[in-house]
């Protein structure tokens, strides 16, 4: 009987520890949970059938149905409660044959970029997303435009401002993105 009581007490203690840890996890704000998930998740690879570019995205993101409607376009999302993070890639024509500098100036102006970086065949823009009436929202974007002949290969990330630290892994993926892997 003592052995049974001892095992019962041990099992009860283990259950209480588990419950207290689980309850503490529920008290953790979503951006912190998301940061942990981003750090621990496996990155999946998506290869576009039309242009054969490759994108890496977190395993817990879901591909949206409408992302396959346009040639060369995809969109993966994570959403929980009021938090939505969207990773998108698309191919855009460059009919005006804009140079890298011209395109960077145009898109930086259009998107109200607050940060810009230029490389040999790409540029990166980031800033707040503006509403239709021009007001700054609490959402941010990070985008890389890669020039290839008369095309722009674009990868973007849109996320809530309070999740900026949590999405650093995805921002790094975008910053180091090579359209076609070697």
Protein described:
- With 182 residues, the chain is of the alpha+beta class.
- 31% of the residues lie in helices and 36% in strands.
- The protein is built from 4 helices and 9 strands, in the order ααβββββαββββα.
- The protein has helices at 2-27, 30-40, 100-110, 168-175; strands at 43-47, 54-58, 62-63, 74-80, 83-93, 115-118, 122-130, 136-148, 151-160.
- The strands form 2 sheets. A 7-stranded antiparallel beta sheet has the order 3-4-5-9-8-7-6, sandwiched between helices. Strands 1-2 form a two-stranded antiparallel ribbon.
- It is globular, with a radius of gyration of 22 Å.
- The model is unreliable at 4-9 and 11-23 (pLDDT under 50).
**Annotation field: number of helices:** 4
Could you say which overall geometry the principal axes of the C-alpha atoms support?
Answer: globular
Give me the count of strands. Answer: 9
What structural class do you assign from the helix and strand content? alpha+beta
Overall residue-averaged pLDDT value: 85
> Could you name the ranges where pLDDT drops below 50 across 5 or more consecutive residues?
4-9, 11-23
Share of residues in helices: 25-40%
């Amino acid at each position: 009987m003592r052995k049974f009581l001892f095992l019962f007490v041990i099992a009860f203690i283990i259950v209480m520890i588990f419950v207290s840890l689980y309850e503490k996890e529920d008290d953790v704000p979503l951006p912190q949970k998301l940061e942990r998930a981003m750090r621990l998740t496996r990155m999946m690879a998506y290869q576009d059938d039309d242009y054969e570019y490759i994108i890496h995205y977190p395993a817990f993101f879901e591909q949206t149905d409408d992302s396959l409607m346009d040639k060369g376009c995809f969109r993966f999302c994570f959403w929980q409660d009021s938090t939505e993070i969207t990773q998108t890639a698309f191919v855009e024509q460059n009919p005006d044959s804009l140079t890298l500098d011209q395109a960077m100036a145009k898109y930086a102006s259009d998107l109200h970029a607050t940060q810009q970086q230029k490389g040999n065949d790409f540029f990166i823009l980031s800033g707040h997303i503006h509403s239709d009436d021009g007001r700054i929202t609490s959402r941010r974007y990070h985008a890389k435009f890669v020039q290839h002949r008369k095309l722009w290969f674009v990868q973007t990330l849109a996320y809530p401002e309070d999740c900026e630290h949590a999405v650093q892994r995805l921002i790094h993926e975008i910053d180091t993105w090579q359209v076609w892997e070697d």
